[in-house]
Specification:
Length: 731
């Protein structure tokens, strides 16, 4: 029977569960290697069929309502003769009662290894394929991996590789290696099944038994049907053009402007005006009057000129009254800073839904509510409460936490990381993070996308958009609510429940998203992606001013999946002409305290020429200006007769030496297309992660610790693997 006929028959009978034989018949249609078996109706038929199958056999109770057969004693193993079969059948008959539809006779298969495969329909992401360690250890060890359908062979192959129990797929205690192509075939079949039949809500193949010769057989299966998911969404796509218009207004009305220091209506106004916004800025407050010498309009309808964007900070219960005024004025975009909507509970949710409904009818785009604001340094637009003004750059930052967002903006400003744009997405009542992703896709100024996410509105759209964007520019994500406590906090903060973390992470990895664990990782990756060429391989050369630091960094590289290759005889010979005879002659390369500023550059260039190195980390070469400054301060105290002018010039001269070093390194990155990052010896409040160098595509990048440098490079490598078509991101 064909798959469609089988499913329709089950549905016509009013059933939601296929019996085991039907489930295996369906799976066989999709290439899943299932065990040979026979369905019989009576006890005598079971005995006769067992003799045909050949002892030993397995006897199971069959019925669409018998979904937990083992627990009910409906699976009888290793039956060696007709008496065993007859006795087992009687026990199954008594245990199953009226739920019994027949018996299933299978050959008794042997195998020490068991895996599990399955399919389920996630509320956010749709059909998801699962693979993991099976048998009695499935729930105890929770060693499972997930991928969103559709799968290809690369996706399925990586699922096998990522299992912690992956060594069981190889030769094991005298048994042959698993025929992994059969497992891949199973996973691909489940993927196709999930796409072909949206009403298939759950498939469980447990166990996938591995025979001693490596053959794979599905010996038990469950298939559950449900309603086809609807295609309608409460969050229709906004469009990239509309998002772009939000960040390039020629005129802004600040509704709820205030003269009081510390009020949002004062903070937003002074930030925009103080940030040298070039467009028209209109203040609106029902009381009228003046603020900072500017006329205050009592209503947006009194404003004489055109208004592109309304920034709203009036109380939540008055925001709806504003919609007709905006419509009359022809204002198409609305940034709602005001809180008191969905995040406050059921009443706030209804208010937010009404706001969206009326705004859509009026043709008005709503960003927010409950947002920290937006900024576009390329347009001198700084519309956030905190007065943070990072320089223009190529990193676009969207966060579902306004406070975290502006904190990251402040870090970016301090570290010299340029910002393309920032958006605090707030409650995402209309403009969602998926809409923002669509805009990044077509924005030429965005080179790196950085997201802080607590929940998503449309998982499948997020996944598909991320796949598309990731082919052009890296997407870096920090997920809030990764723990149970975090999930509760996220739900109370955003008014939305987070998707299951494992499914979310699987979707991200499959879409090429670079997942990070800490807020500062976002900026480290943004700095690296926006300033360096991508790694061509994982081979790292390490140059250090001290041996211990090199050892620590080499260990970190290995732990994060990078390689520290041995130096070839040729490269050793070339470095012998640069360093004294007692240098380390190995990777990491200790510069043995050489203070000639030309020596590090010469060694680095030789390593970049070497085809055994594709990325370089240098440590302790930068940061010596601080030591010189400290030394000068001590000398001024101890030696009274020194030339103070010459002495004061020493730190400045060392800074110039280090600046020259960075410029030369950046030029070499452009010449050899290999990334080079530094780790500072020491730092102070003037230290910057990024050093801009004019005239080239790359910048100087230096981190404060080896861990941050290695982690950033490892994440860059895994993203490069994904973009080059090597499948999902590695761990």
């Amino acid at each position: 029977m064909k798959a469609a006929e089988l499913i329709e028959r089950v549905k016509s009978e009013g059933r939601t569960t296929l019996n085991e034989a039907e489930a295996k018949q369906l799976l066989r249609c999709y290439g899943v290697p299932v065990v040979e078996e026979t369905v019989v109706e009576t006890l005598d038929d079971a005995v006769a069929q067992a003799q045909i199958t050949g002892f030993p056999v397995v006897l199971k109770g069959l019925g669409s309502r018998l979904t937990h057969k083992t627990e009910r004693g409906l699976v009888r193993l290793n039956l060696n003769d007709t008496d065993d079969v007859r006795s087992a059948a009687r026990k199954v008959l008594n245990a199953a009662g009226d739920d019994l539809e027949g018996f299933l006779i299978q050959p008794m298969l042997s195998g020490r290894r068991e895996f599990v495969a399955g399919l389920f329909r996630d509320a956010q992401f749709g059909p998801v394929v699962m693979f993991g360690l099976g048998g009695i250890f499935t729930e105890a060890l929770n060693d499972v991996v997930f991928r969103l359908a559709p799968l290809n062979e690369i996706h399925a192959g990586h699922m096998l590789d990522e299992l912690r129990a992956a060594p069981l797929l190889g030769p094991f205690r005298g048994e042959r290696a698993v025929k992994c192509e059969q497992i891949v075939q199973t996973l691909l079949g489940l993927s196709r099944l999930g796409l072909d039949y949206p009403e298939v809500t759950e498939v469980d193949v447990n166990p996938l038994l591995i025979a001693p010769d490596g053959e794979v057989k599905a010996v038990d299966a469950l298939v559950v049907l449900g309603k086809k998911p609807g295609k309608e969404t409460a969050y229709p796509s906004v469009g990239a053009r509309a998002i772009g218009d939000l960040f390039y207004p020629d005129s802004i009305a600040i509704v709820g402007a205030s003269p009081r220091f510390g009020k949002w209506g004062h903070r937003i106004f002074t930030n925009i005006a103080g940030g040298d916004f070039k467009g028209e800025l209109y203040l609106v407050n029902a009381k009228g009057g003046e603020i900072a010498g500017r006329h205050v309009f009592k209503s947006v309808t009194e404003i004489p000129g055109q208004v592109d964007l309304a920034i709203v900070m009036i109380p939540a219960d008055r925001v709806l009254e504003l919609i007709p005024q905006l419509k009359v004025k022809g204002i198409k975009s609305m940034l709602v800073i005001t809180s008191g909507f969905r995040e406050t509970g059921e009443e706030g949710r209804h208010l937010e839904e009404q706001l969206v409904r009326e705004a859509r009818e009026a043709g008005i785009l709503v960003l927010g509510p409950n947002t920290m604001g937006i900024c576009n340094p390329h347009y001198n637009l700084y519309a956030t409460g905190p007065h943070v003004r990072p320089k223009p750059g190529s990193m676009t930052l969207v966060t579902q936490s306004g406070n975290l967002g502006v904190q990251l903006l402040a870090f970016a400003e301090r570290e010299g990381i340029g910002i393309r744009a920032f958006c605090g997405s707030g409650n995402e009542a209309m403009v969602t993070i998926e809409d923002c992703m669509d805009a990044f896709d077509v924005d030429d100024l965005t080179r790196t996308v950085v997201l802080y996410i607590e929940s998503i509105k449309d998982g499948r759209r997020f996944f598909e958009t991320a796949c598309r964007v990731g082919r052009k520019k890296p997407v870096v994500v920090l997920k809030g609510g990764r723990t149970r406590v975090g999930e509760r906090a996220a739900a109370s903060h955003t008014g939305a429940l987070a998707s299951d973390l494992k499914v979310f992470e699987a979707a991200c990895r499959q879409a090429g998203i670079v997942l990070v664990e800490q807020p500062m990782d976002l900026l480290d990756l943004a700095a690296a992606f926006s300033s360096l060429p991508l790694l061509k391989s994982r081979r790292v050369a390490i140059v250090t001013m001290g041996g211990g630091w090199g050892v620590v960094t080499a260990d970190l590289c290995v732990e994060y999946g990078l390689e520290v290759p041995d130096l070839s005889s040729e490269i050793i010979s070339r470095i012998n002409h640069i360093l004294p005879p007692y240098w380390s002659h190995s990777n990491p390369i200790d510069l043995v305290g050489e203070r000639d500023p030309k020596i590090p550059i010469m060694v680095i260039e030789e390593l970049l020429k070497w085809d055994g190195c594709d990325v370089l980390i240098h440590m302790g070469i930068l940061g010596h200006a601080f030591f010189v400054r400290w030394l000068v301060n001590s000398m001024k105290i101890v030696e009274k007769d020194l030339d103070l002018v010459a002495l004061e010039n020493l730190p400045r001269q060392q800074t110039q030496v280090e600046r020259s070093f960075i410029e030369q390194v950046v030029k070499m990155m452009e010449k050899y297309e290999k990334p080079v990052v530094g780790v500072n010896m020491v730092s102070d409040e003037t230290t910057r992660m990024i050093t801009d160098i004019e005239g080239g595509p790359y910048k100087g990048v230096s981190f404060l610790t080896p861990e941050r440098a290695v982690k950033a490079l490892a994440k860059m490598y895994t993203y490069g693997c994904w973009r080059n078509g090597e499948g999902v991101l590695l761990r």
